[in-house]
Amino acid sequence: MKALLICLIPLLTTACSHTAQDQWYGQDKAQHFIASAMLSAAGNEYGQHQGWSNDRSATFGLMFSIGLGITKEAWDSRAAGSGWSWKDLAWDVAGAATGYTVWQLAR
After folding, report:
1. Residue ranges per structural domain of the chain
2. How many CA atoms lie within 13 A of 59 on its CB side?
């Protein structure tokens, strides 16, 4: 819960005044989905190699992947960037959840 609050506080206090005007589908969204799935699975596997419990590994993998997605959107929201995209972030979360699920099924 504490990790979730740490991630949400900066997100909720950000003005996000520079938002992207993008579509729900496209090559960009597939890249967000696939990268997040791979990062989530990699984070889960890293936790297992560290000897962590399944729950701790899963939390680390999901937070690692989603945290990088939020960081990417924060970078995009700069004046010179393409703008914050809630759609990209939604694909990041979907990818992270899929990566976790596939990792669990493959174990």
Report:
1. 33-107
2. 10
